[in-house]
Amino acid sequence: MKRALVTGGSGALGAEISRALARAGMHVVVHAHGNAARAETLSKEIVAAGGRSEVALFDVRDPAACSREIDRLLAGGALQVLVHNAGITADAPMAGMSAEQWSSVIDVSLNGFYNVARPLLLPMLRTRWGRVVAISSVAGIMGNRGQANYAAAKAGLHGAVKSLAIEVASRGVTANAVAPGIIESPMTRDAFSAEDIQRLVPMKRAGTPAEVAAVVAFLCSDGAAYLSGQVIAVDGAMA
Predict the structure, then answer these.
(1) Residue 186: what pLDDT?
(2) Strand pairing of 3-7 and 27-32?
(3) What is the Cα–Cα distance from 76 to 4, expressed in whole angstroms?
(4) What is the CA angle 211-215-217, rounded to 5?
(5) Which residues are catalytic?
(6) How many angstroms from the chain centroid is the CA of residue 34?
(7) Which run of H or E residues covers position 215?
(8) Residue 65: which H helix or E strand, with range?
């Protein structure tokens, strides 16, 4: 059974990705930092549905914490799937953006990717099968007012997966990014009115977490073995 780590697995999108990978027959490690209770609830839900799951709690910004927890997980064998979904926002026009707002978003999305992916790669490569998926955003493709930090972090992930894809291609490992647009969640309901969605999204609706999770699950499957180094927008034709 392949083992998958989903960072930010306790959030709305991460939870749906975790469920999709569990349905695909993977043992899913649900990661959380500030939402341990939600991660535990999700893990128990997966097990109750007949899947395999456990929880990992650590701060992706902390290299030492990542190494300690990943070493613990690797004691049970290689993790052949990584979905880096952890991310935060701290929006402000760049002229008024604090250093903390800039660095906090970069630390979770981009530095967090490095901190988690790097220790997983050699064990993954030794199995000659692996899937790395970074959850990006349409903001990383198009930019977005008030989100220079977020767009920079997500665009950085695009460069990282494209480079990683080349490095690991000969070992049966792929690396891709998925860039969601406006996806239904409590946060987007507060940020975007129905009128905003009609104006911004050619499909005239928000996407669902399940629609993003379906793309991620495909990228993590055997069927996506020849698909690597790509940034796939799931955004209702926004980008």
Answers:
(1) 76
(2) parallel
(3) 12
(4) 110
(5) 150
(6) 16
(7) helix 209-219
(8) helix 63-74
